[in-house]
Amino acid sequence: MASLKTLLYLGICLSAWIITTADNNFVPKAEQVHWVSLDFKTILTWTTKPSNYTYTVLYSGDEGNWRESPDCIRVSESECDLTNYLVPFDRTYSADIQTEPASMHNDYDLDLFPHTYSLTFNPYRESNISAVKFTVEDAGEGRAIVNITDPLTSVHQGGKQLSIRDVLRKDLKYKISYYKSGSTGKRDITSDTSMAEVSELDAEQSYCFMVAAYIPSRKTTQLGAWSLQQCTHGHVPQEWSLGAWVGGVFILLTVLIILVTVTVLCCKCCRQRNKTLHTPQSSALV
Ligand SMILES: *[C@@H]1O[C@H](CO)[C@@H](O)[C@H](O)[C@H]1NC(C)=O
Ligand SMILES: *[C@@H]1O[C@H](CO)[C@@H](O)[C@H](O)[C@H]1NC(C)=O
């Protein structure tokens, strides 16, 4: 009984000692933990204060077991790329950032050091989608073909770099926003595929297009970043290229110069003829 009491006291003293020394030698805790995710590349970031401590990141999916992220064991940086571990994408993941002494002995009890838990994150539902690249071609008869390049993720599977279409499949749609050049009214269409036809355009007009990935099945982060704008030229400006304009102006100028020259020459002729006609008459009158 006495020995049990001694053991208990010893235990209390030891924990108190560890806690007080921990307090004395400030042990930093990861703060402001955020998920940053673009095109399914997912990085956990946090802030720290300079110290001799390092951080180990653990993660778990759907409240399963905690696993150490092999790339982020006792790191001194304040970020951890978890892209390759958060698979399958459509799961709810949590992370735990654990502070550890830089020189680690096996007999440390890690639970005595601070942990910071992240909010949960589901890459499939929350990763942002970057601005896409696309081309637009005038297909005649008031139609335009929009050809969108699905952004690539940094995830490789079976030697292939996956695109966001490989990940999202049928859930990936595109929002195409367009307006007639010089007007403010915008129209929107949604396309299920990466190639879309926009019809009922005014054939003679120029139109400008913008595209963004659109995932209506999500509750938040449905829309990706908007692309840069691409415009068609409409039919009239397309036939009148820059060369045609220069040529047209040149011909017009030539015609004008000829006209002016002819007029000037004619007038001179007329005046001269008038003079030769008038002079004898006037002298005859005098
Ligand atoms: C997605 O982008 C928005 C706006 O830039 C940003 O506030 C948010 O933190 C981003 N989300 C992720 C998971 O990166
Ligand atoms: C669409 O764009 C891609 C990439 O720019 C190109 O390889 C493909 O041939 C285009 N498709 C059509 C039908 O223009």
Overview of the structural elements:
By secondary structure, the protein is of the alpha+beta class. The strands form five sheets. A four-stranded antiparallel β-sheet has the order 4-3-6-7, with no helix packed on it. A four-stranded antiparallel β-sheet has the order 13-12-15-16, with no helix packed on it. A three-stranded antiparallel β-sheet has the order 1-2-5, with no helix packed on it. The protein contains five helices and 16 strands. The protein is elongated and about 145 Å long. The structure holds 2-acetamido-2-deoxy-beta-D-glucopyranose (NAG) (2 copies). Residues 147, 149 line the site of one 2-acetamido-2-deoxy-beta-D-glucopyranose.
In a nutshell, what does this entry contain?
28% of the residues lie in helices and 33% in strands. By secondary structure, it is an alpha+beta fold.
- Radius of gyration, CA atoms, in whole angstroms: 38 Å
Contiguous runs where pLDDT drops below 50 for at least 5 residues: 19-24, 281-286
Order of helices and strands: HEEEEEEEHEEEEHEEEEEHH
Total count of helical runs of at least 4 residues: 5
Cofactors and ligands present? 2-acetamido-2-deoxy-beta-D-glucopyranose
**How is the main sheet built?**
4 strands, antiparallel
Our estimate of the beta-strand percent is 25-35%
Can you tell me the overall shape?
elongated
Structural class: alpha+beta
Give the CA-CA distance, first to last residue.
Answer: 161 Å
